Amino acid sequence: MAVTKSNIPDRLAQTLVLDSSASGAAENNVFTGVTLADKIYQVVIDNSAVGAATYLRGQYATSYTKTGASVATSADDIRLYAPANQVVTYIFPEGLAFTTGLSFLATSDTSDVHTTAYTDPGATVIVKILGGT
Amino acid sequence: MSTNIKIANVDEAGLTNKIIKDIRLADTSSPSAIVDVTQESGDPHYLSVDASACSGAAQRWNLYLVTAHVSVGSTNPDVHIKIPASARFKMSFPTGLPFTSLSASLLTTSENTATANSEAGANRFAIFHAVTS
């Protein structure tokens, strides 16, 4: 997995998070708490290489917490769907505000009751998240 | 289907769009979800929730895109977004987000098994808008 962060000019969204190989292993605290962004303006999920749906799953926290086998105390705050073999773009024109931080993973699994690792997508999934303050 | 939902089908006007508005998406006195509202597959252009009246709790907006047989609390949502209390939220899809069936629910907790909306219980309702093709 490789995450790149780039600064772009103020008065637009300031931070672009690029995960060139998103997987079931979480990328935690990608906006350094809410220092780099406290709103999400755009999410692109490139699922073109995968023959099954992929879900980008995030929690407004500094780390993504899996839940226990019988409880779901840390379920998703955001879950976005990408159909098989497609690139989808979600635009939030007024921003989607979050607190504490943003951590995410990509998986084919929608269950929120987990004690083991999330299933990785079947091939490379590229995720871009544009955030700002 | 809820009496609070209105659907304008402008197919006959030479366009291929449907405009959907539900003024009480999470009304506890009616089904807690709108299910298969377009009665056919499609592509959303624009979706929004106006939760400005919901001052007591964040709203958890669920969208179900791949099955017409939705049961809130049993069917895992394909898209889940936490909307802050008293907020309006909009999203659009410039590259499309094809669905086989469009359903939505609005709850106040995030786990897949959630079924309740405490704001609706307090007579504070959110408005759902969709434009699809």
Count of DSSP helices of chain B? 1
Average of per-residue pLDDT values of chain B: 86
Strand percentage of chain B, roughly?
25-35%
Derived from helix and strand composition plus strand pairing, the structural class of chain B reads: mainly beta
Distance between the termini of chain A: 26 Å
Report Rg of chain B.
14 Å
Question: Could you please describe the fold and organization of this structure?
Answer:
With 133 residues, chain A is mostly beta strands. Chain A has no helices and eight strands. Chain A has strands at 3-7, 15-19, 39-46, 54-59, 78-82, 87-97, 103-107, 126-132. The radius of gyration of chain A is 14 Å and the shape is globular. The mean pLDDT of chain A is 89. Chain B has a single domain, classed as Sandwich (Jelly Rolls). Chain B is built from one helix and nine strands. Chain B has one helix at 118-121, and strands spanning 5-9, 18-22, 33-34, 44-50, 59-64, 79-83, 88-92, 103-107, 127-132. In chain B, strands 1-2-9-4-7 form a five-stranded antiparallel beta sheet, with no helix packed on it. Chain B has a four-stranded antiparallel beta sheet with strand order 3-8-5-6, with no helix packed on it. Classes of the chains: A mainly beta (133), B mainly beta (133).
SSE blueprint and pairings:
The complex is a heterodimer of chains A (133) and B (133).
Chain A: E1 3-7, E2 15-19, E3 39-46, E4 54-59, E5 78-82, E6 87-97, E7 103-107, E8 126-132
Antiparallel strand pairs in A: 1-2, 2-8, 3-6, 3-8, 4-5, 4-7
Chain B: E1 5-9, E2 18-22, E3 33-34, E4 44-50, E5 59-64, E6 79-83, E7 88-92, E8 103-107, H1 118-121, E9 127-132
Antiparallel strand pairs in B: 1-2, 2-9, 3-8, 4-7, 4-9, 5-6, 5-8
